[in-house]
Amino acid sequence: SHPIAHAFAGFEVDRKQVRQLTNHENGVQGRVDGVHYQLGNAAFTGVNVVEISSGHGRLWLADEKGWIARFDLDDGLRESAGETITALKARGLELIILSGDHEQAVASVAKRTGIEQWHAEQSPKMKMDFLQSLQAEGKTVLMVGDGINDAPVLSAANVSMTVSGASELANSTADFIITGKSLIYIDIILSMSDKTHAVIRQNLSWALAYNLLAVPFAAAGLIVPWMAALGMSLSSLLVVLNSGRLAKRKREDDIPMQEGVPVT
Asked: What is the total count of domains within the chain?
């Protein structure tokens, strides 16, 4: 289910020939016909790479003697990535890329998206340490990811989202699962969150004002029971109608629907 695995999905592999298959943070290893193979980044496979000029993600296949093959992968940017980044910046959010890919690949994505802060070759522990350092500064962190290695960080973030095609483990730890392919749903979720927060404040303010006004009159005996019951019912109805405006706003916003419901 890993996104990189889709690049190799078209190759037929007899899994019965693979022995001692083990997954690691930076790759996978196993034995085929008695030969030990490793598939992953340069550090995992022990490849001595002095300089990588390619902007693509790079995987190495190596055996006990050294590397055998190199794979250059480029999954491109997701739909509406540029539009989403612009919208999030307009909200005043600080955007940071944490990626396990090599430096050139991450730099290329950062340049295309206009994100100034980025960190490459990040292990799950490094991502977690960085997240905790932000939280220690009092910052509220929203984490968006899709890989198995993102799962621990997603669970530790204040708010977390996974996108279409994410691994099952990542989905199980996320607060939101975006099933649409477009990243613009991230901004839509934040927009709906702001509106919901505003409605909650309005309802609480109304409830407080109503009770501060009505309770003294009721205590003084100036309000008969049927009037109190009617007032409470009208107050509850007002709260429900005010909350119902959120559903109306959702229709008016004309949110693009892809693959059914955009988030779960």
From this structure: 3
* 27-32, strands of its sheet edge to edge: 18-24, 27-32, 35-40, 57-62, 67-73
Q: What is the mean pLDDT of residues 156-177?
A: 88
Please state which of the ranges 75-79, 90-94, 232-236 shows the lowest mean pLDDT. 75-79
| Strand order, beta sheet including 142-145 | 142-145, 159-162, 176-177
Whether residue 163 is contained in a domain is answered as: yes
Buried b / exposed e along 49-66 (16+ C-beta atoms within 10 A): eeeeeebbbbbbbbeeee
Residue 28 lies in a domain: yes
Q: Is there a single domain that holds both residue 169 and residue 202?
A: no
Helix (H) or strand (E) segment spanning residue 36: strand 35-40
Q: What is the pLDDT of residues 36-54, one digit of tens each?
A: 888 887 777 877 765 555 5
106 with 142, same domain: the answer is yes
Residue 57 inside a domain? The answer is yes
Read out DSSP for 70-101? EEEE---PPTTHHHHHHHHHHTT---EEE-SS
The residue segments making up the domain with residue 248 are 194-252
